[in-house]
Amino acid sequence: MKKFMLVTVIALMSVMLVDAQTVKVADKELIGAWQLEWMQYDGEKKILCGKGTEYTSFKYYGQDGEYACAEIALSKDGKCVILPHEYGKYTYKDGRYSEMGRPIVKPEEMQMIDKTHFRGRWKNRTEAWKKLPALPKNVVDYIVNCCKDQIIPDDINQAMKQQMFK
Q1: What is the pLDDT of residues 87-138, one digit of tens each?
Q2: C-alpha 61: how far from its chain's center?
């Protein structure tokens, strides 16, 4: 009986210690512009993105659930090229995340590390993102609008799916 109590106490203390070490980040901290710092495919080397490279990804999370995602590359002549990826809605509440109407991801697939960093997992790729609080609002708005402009009308979308994918 004493051994059982001792094991139980140790187990409870371990759980409390792990919980105390977990950083609690408010859901609202996701709101803003984010840049991909690195990505790593399973079994491969980390790929750095952003400063010192010619490629990054951008995500925007608005207060009202607005979501935009784009790839940004530097062309050979040094100009930024925006490649809109998607535009729509996201939800993030109590650590539960979903974007574009997709199923809610497992907590380990979207983790807020602190107020300015999060890690995500998509299929066989792990990503690290950092917040860009100094990115001017007009730049954020421009990139978001590029993503918004890429929305394909339903009739065009349907015709493309029928002719190209079915």
Answers
A1: 999 999 888 899 999 999 988 889 999 999 999 998 899 999 999 999 999 9
A2: 9
**For the chain, domain boundaries:** 23-156
Spatial contact of 130 and 56, defined as CB atoms under 8 Å apart? no
Taking the C-alpha atoms of residue 79 and residue 88, their distance in angstroms, rounded to an integer, is 27
Helix (H, G, I), strand (E, B) or coil at 162: helix
38 pairs with which residues across the strands? Answer: 48, 128
Tokens 């990826």 — which residue? 85
* Number of alpha helices (DSSP H) and beta strands (DSSP E) in the chain: 3, 9
Percent pLDDT > 70 in the chain is 86
What is the assigned CATH class of domain 23-156? mainly beta
Q: Quote the DSSP letter at residue 31.
A: -
What's the CA dihedral at 155, 156, 160, 161 to 10 degrees? -40
- The pTM of the full predicted model, rounded to 2 decimals, is 0.79
- pLDDT tens for each residue of 26-58: 888 899 999 999 999 999 999 999 999 999 999
Q: Which two three-digit tokens encode residue 41?
A: 């495919």
